[in-house]
Prior knowledge:
Blueprint: H1 2-26, E1 38-42, E2 45-49, E3 85-87, H2 89-100, E4 106-110, H3 114-117, E5 126-127, H4 141-150, E6 155-157, E7 160-162, E8 168-172, H5 180-190, E9 198-201, H6 204-210
Parallel strand pairs: 3-9, 4-5, 4-8, 8-9
Antiparallel strand pairs: 1-2, 6-7
Amino acid sequence: MIKALHLAIGCTVAASLLVSSFAIAADKVGITRSMKSFEGTVDGKSIVIKRNQDTTNKVNPAFAKTSRPCPPFCVQPMHLAPGVETIGELELIQYVKQMSEGNSNILLVDSRTPNWVARGTIPGARNIPWTKLNPSKGADPISIGDILTGEFGAKEIEGLWDFANAKTLILFCNGNWCGQSPNNIKNLMRFGYPAHKIKWYRGGMQNWENLGLSTYKPE
Length: 219
């Protein structure tokens, strides 16, 4: 009886240790030492940001190229415009966390064309293609105005733009060589959008994917 009890206890402890080891293994690739992953809700949708747990995972072939023709795919500067802050992955995740906590004054913007977005984007992002804010690409003043007011929270008063309550925008595109988010940013500033309300994730999808961070494909 005692031997059977010891055996049962031993099996329970062994099983517990086995479960614990699987749990540790499942979380062996964290984002930081203190942040294993992030889960929240943005625009009513549940999102998860974590790193791929497969330590043999390889870079997405779509972002494996090192040398794209320049122009147009030229290396972007670290500081895009005066007052526009360049951020990294951890800062971007903190902004997504604020969005998840109910801060509606922040918007994560994927500036790429829809064909790129369909391959996967950062959880919580909304697609505003760079062509939609670019008059040289056919964007008309009315449609641009609709984006500024309907998406970004600006107000038009007697033909003038009021950005006092406009959202803080975090913009990104494909990477350090991509000009789509820089184009959006430069056009926004031409319309008067305050530089301090614009954040630029320069690394874009290439850096995001290189770190094995979560992506999702819009419906």
